[in-house]
């Protein structure tokens, strides 16, 4: 309802003030060939809007009374800037008014009141009276004076004809603000009239302050209600409504206090924004109070609010004048929001909702005040600032008080209900305490019985505990025996594997030794033709070679078993893994070439140049790489023997740095492994090589070195007919 004040006050100033001013001016000033005749000054003052002349030029001589301004163009500066096209593009200009002052006014103290939209310098008979703002030919240097300038006292002494000259400079940024301030409005009045006007005008800011204070208190009060009753969301929306109205009235109050044009314009925009916003929050509070769901109409109010502010404050979207656009925008939005408030209130009354009558009474009172205000304006009855402030305050506060009283009554009702519930809770608590005392007595009796039963049960449990401890001891003994049996079973399996592996070479050694003995006996029997002796010696030599070979195999088996069982004691040192891997793969290749005549394969090396040195046991890791390389070359050699068409034997070595570790891959394109072989490839003594070519401990030993000795992983991936890849991952 705060906007009603501004709208109705605007109508009052435009209609009532305009009519009375024109009547007074018509009586006070009569045209004369020499200029404008000022015979009397009424109590309300007279507006000097006739007889002005204008020139878009800058010359200090224009302030002199003897200057001839007959060629200047006539102008009425008491209009909106947009209604004076002759001022478009003007940087500095002059206005002159010739006044013929009656003898009764000569020597009497009079007051000039200026309202303007730029900067000005006021001269009387060539003498500078006052500067309002800063006049400059450079628009960037212009500093506007206040909308309503401080009163200027004048004494019309000397000749009967007085010359009032105004040097002015328009203020460019005013084009962005579409307000209702005329370009230059000059009112002349006496000191009694000025005092009366100031006394009446002092009522308005006081009323703004008081109304804003009421809304501040209402906002804080309902925020307090919201704090203690979160279920009633209407308190929150009403607090928004009251807070927005308080900000709007505060901006209006400050707008009456400041003197500068820029803060006055800014405060006017702030006041319009928050006062109109309060209408929307009032509608939202009514929705919540009556339990209605906001729909598109409520959303449309926010859109209309934005359009109203743009249309009235910042731009002109129509061909109407600024005053018409401003009034249309405000009246349109206020009418729309008020209609929605009335619709919600009437709907609440039809549904006989609680509090609807109280809220309707508040809106009815505001409507009566608005109607009384409108009737006074239509009847052209003089309205004092005090009467205007009283009516506007009532229009703003009565609806808010209606809603606030309803919410306060709801809060009080809820508080009373809570007190009733509290008394009921206290009664129930007393009954509960009495029942609790009875239960305590019953529990005491039950506790005595339970203690006796617990004592008997405890003795029984003690016996059961002894039996449980004996059973646990027997279980531990059985577990120890089971562990020992497992150890013995593993040892037996290991011993059987060792015996089996050593039995073959030893059997060969025994057989060849017996044959050698018989050959020696044949030589000793004298059956010694030279040819036969040569054959016996050759067979003997061959047997001895076989004995040596199988003896070396038995020695190799024992050596691998010892290496498999011992724990690494070699020191760890930073090692270049690229060099170590390439060296051992090359050794494996060269060693395998010496064993197979005509064997050729391609060794491809893809090493990561940014691989950092790793702290490892170099000899053990080298043994792993040598073993993997030997197995890879053996696999590709098997593919060569199978004479696969187009097959080129290849072993590829790859090293890569990875987050938190290092990868070493050894891949061959041999025949690959079956699923059965993959499952057992890391088992001790398991091998797919022919008898005499492998012990079955190489991969098992390599797996232990990588996993147990270095904390890494050794995995294998293989596909029959495509090849095999071993992957070593070492942590960094």
From TrEMBL:
Residues 497-732 form the Histidine kinase domain. The chain crosses the membrane at residues 208-225, 237-256, 262-283, 295-314, 326-346, 358-381, 387-408. Residues 458-488 form a coiled coil. Residues 1-21 form the signal peptide. Keywords: Coiled coil, Membrane, Phosphoprotein, Signal, Transmembrane, Transmembrane helix. Its EC number is 2.7.13.3. It is an enzyme of class 2 (transferase). It holds the Pfam family HisKA. It catalyses: ATP + protein L-histidine = ADP + protein N-phospho-L-histidine. The keyword Transmembrane helix applies. It comes from the Bacteria. SMART domains: HATPase_c (SM00387), HisKA (SM00388). This is histidine kinase.
């Amino acid at each position: 309802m705060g906007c009603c004040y501004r709208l109705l006050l605007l109508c009052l100033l435009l209609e009532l003030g305009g009519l009375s001013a024109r009547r007074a001016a018509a009586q006070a000033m009569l045209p004369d060939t020499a200029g404008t005749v000022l015979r009397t000054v009424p109590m309300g003052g007279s507006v000097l809007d006739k007889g002005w002349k204008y020139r878009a030029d800058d010359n200090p001589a224009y302030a002199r009374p003897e200057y001839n301004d007959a060629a200047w163009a006539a102008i009425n500066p008491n209009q909106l800037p947009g209604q004076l096209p002759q001022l478009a593009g003007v940087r500095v200009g002059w206005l002159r008014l010739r006044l013929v002052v009656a003898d009764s006014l000569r020597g009497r103290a009079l007051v000039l009141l200026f309202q303007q939209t730029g900067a000005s310098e006021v001269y009387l008979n060539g003498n500078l009276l006052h500067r309002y703002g800063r006049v400059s030919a450079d628009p960037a240097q212009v500093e506007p004076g206040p909308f309503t300038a401080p009163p200027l006292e004048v004494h019309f002494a000397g000749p009967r004809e007085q010359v009032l000259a105004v040097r002015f400079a328009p203020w460019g940024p005013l084009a962005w603000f579409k307000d209702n301030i005329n370009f230059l409005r000059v009112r002349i009045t006496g000191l009694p009239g000025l005092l009366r006007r100031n006394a009446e005008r002092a009522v308005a800011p006081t009323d703004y302050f008081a109304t804003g204070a009421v809304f501040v208190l209402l906002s804080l009060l309902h925020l307090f209600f919201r704090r203690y009753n979160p279920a009633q969301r209407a308190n929150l929306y009403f607090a928004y409504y009251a807070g927005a109205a308080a900000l709007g009235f505060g901006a209006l109050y400050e707008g009456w206090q400041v003197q500068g044009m820029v803060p006055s314009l800014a405060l006017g925009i702030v006041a319009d924004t928050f006062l109109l916003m309060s209408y929307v929050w009032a509608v939202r509070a009514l929705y919540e109070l009556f339990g209605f769901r906001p729909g598109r109409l409520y959303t449309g109010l926010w859109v209309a609010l934005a359009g109203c502010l743009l249309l009235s404050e910042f731009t002109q979207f129509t061909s109407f004048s600024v005053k018409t656009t401003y009034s249309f925008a405000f009246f349109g939005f206020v009418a729309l929001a008020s209609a929605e408030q009335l619709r919600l209130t009437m709907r609440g009354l039809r549904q006989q909702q609680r509090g609807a009558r109280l809220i309707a009474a508040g809106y009815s009172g505001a409507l009566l005040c608005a109607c009384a205000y409108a009737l006074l304006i239509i009847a052209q009855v003089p309205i004092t600032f005090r009467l205007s402030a009283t009516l506007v305050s009532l229009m703003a506060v009565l609806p808010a008080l209606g809603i606030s009283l309803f919410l306060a009554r709801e809060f009080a009702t809820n508080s009373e209900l809570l007190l009733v519930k509290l008394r009921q809770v206290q009664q129930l608590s007393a009954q509960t305490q009495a029942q609790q005392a009875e239960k305590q007595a019953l529990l005491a009796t039950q506790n005595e019985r339970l203690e006796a039963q617990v004592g008997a049960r405890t003795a029984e449990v003690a016996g059961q505990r002894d039996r449980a401890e004996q059973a646990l001891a027997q279980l531990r003994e059985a577990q120890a025996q089971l562990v020992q049996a497992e150890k013995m079973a593993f040892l037996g399996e290991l011993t059987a594997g060792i015996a089996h592996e050593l039995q073959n070479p030893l059997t060969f050694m025994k057989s060849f030794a017996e044959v050698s003995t018989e050959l020696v006996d044949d030589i000793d029997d004298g059956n010694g033709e030279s040819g036969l002796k040569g054959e016996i010696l050759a067979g003997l030599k061959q047997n001895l070679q076989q004995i040596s070979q199988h003896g070396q195999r038995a020695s190799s088996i024992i050596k691998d078993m010892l290496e498999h069982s011992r724990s690494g004691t070699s020191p760890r040192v930073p090692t270049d893994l690229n060099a170590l891997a390439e060296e051992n793969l090359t050794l494996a290749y060269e060693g395998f070439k010496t064993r197979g005549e005509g064997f050729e394969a391609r060794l491809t090396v893809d090493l990561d140049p940014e691989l950092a040195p790793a702290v490892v046991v170099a000899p053990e890791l080298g043994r792993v790489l040598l073993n993997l390389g030997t197995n890879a070359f053996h696999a590709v050699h098997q593919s060569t023997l199978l004479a696969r068409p187009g097959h080129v034997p290849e072993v590829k070595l790859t090293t890569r740095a990875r987050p938190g570790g290092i990868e070493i891959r050894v891949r061959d394109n041999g025949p690959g492994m079956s699923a059965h072989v993959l499952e057992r490839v890391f088992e001790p003594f398991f091998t797919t090589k022919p008898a005499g070519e492998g012990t079955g401990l190489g991969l098992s030993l390599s797996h232990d070195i990588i996993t147990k000795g270095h904390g890494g992983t050794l995995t294998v991936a293989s596909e029959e007919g495509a090849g095999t890849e071993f992957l070593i991952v070492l942590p960094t």
